[in-house]
Design a protein that fits this description.
- The chain is an alpha/beta fold and 255 residues long.
- The protein has one domain: Rossmann fold (3-Layer(aba) Sandwich).
- The chain has helices spanning 45-53, 75-78, 99-107, 113-117, 124-134, 151-163, 181-198, 209-215, 238-254; strands at 2-11, 19-29, 34-38, 60-65, 68-69, 82-85, 169-173, 202-205, 218-223, 226-232.
- The strands form 2 sheets. A 6-stranded mixed beta sheet has the order 6-7-8-3-9-10, with helices on both faces.
- A hairpin with a 7-residue loop joins strand 1 and strand 2 (19-29).
- Helix 3 packs parallel to helix 6 (151-163) and helix 6 packs parallel to helix 7 (181-198).
- It is globular, with a radius of gyration of 19 Å.
- The structure holds adenosine-5'-triphosphate and magnesium ion (MG).
- Adenosine-5'-triphosphate (ATP) binds at residues 11-12, 19, 21, 39, 41-47.
- Magnesium ion (MG) binds at residues 45-46.
Length: 255
Amino acid sequence: MLKINNLSKTFNKQTDHEIKVFEGFNLEIEKNKCTAIIGSNGCGKSTLLNMIAGSIMSDNGHIMLEDKNIGKLKEERRSVHIGRVYQNPSMGVSPSLTILENMSLADKKSESFTLRRLVKKNRIPEYIKLLKELDLGLENQLNTQVRFLSGGQRQSLSLVMATMKHPDLLLLDEHTAALDPKTSFVVMEKTREIIEKNNMTTLMISHNMKDAIDYSDRIIMLDKGKVILDRESNSITEEELMEIYRLKISRDIAS
Ligand SMILES: Nc1ncnc2c1ncn2[C@@H]1O[C@H](COP(=O)(O)OP(=O)(O)OP(=O)(O)O)[C@@H](O)[C@H]1O
Ligand SMILES: [Mg+2]
């Protein structure tokens, strides 16, 4: 379970460009469930994921993951417990390294970068097994540099790498947004398979209302750093979500 208490974050404090994104923010995420986070541009979705992952430190508050207080740990320490796939297909992988080297890096998360690159031969059958499950033929291209892969192939590889050590939490930040509709569908289906197979606790940001409903158990809508909607995904429709957005926009214009 992920439990966030009293989290606050202000960027550019005490300057003309001060941006208060969160103040006293609370959220509980159930174990083994996929929770979708939606909301307009700039409402704080990525900042929230960044604070959970430790790439941005919160100003105060607690982040408990499986009874461990991770809120003060460095990002590298947290990454042992947290898997992450980014919007940009180049972010979750090292493009100049081969598929094999990338898998090895992900496999040895807690070791130093130099040691991690050295591939342990006895682990290769496991990498091949995981890649085969993607059904993209990547297991036949182990020595290909990742920069030569398509966006969809990279995101799929990134997903396998993020989940291979069975993290307590998987963070997906618009991980199919840069893909064409067909590839996005393929990657979302693979995401579902991997999440279900590993019973993974997942937080998924998406601007695609249909995906948010279809692939999650719960939907949370953020607005200006606050939860303005929290529903079981099977209790709400795409049309209702769009209507909430429309009402919000007209309210924002009026104010
Ligand atoms: N490192 C940073 N430094 C300064 N301001 C930041 C930083 N990161 C985010 N912000 C600001 O915080 C606010 C929330 O940004 P965030 O990226 O979390 O939004 P988002 O909900 O992910 O939006 P989008 O849907 O466009 O990805 C924005 O006003 C953004 O400009
Ligand atoms: Mg974002």
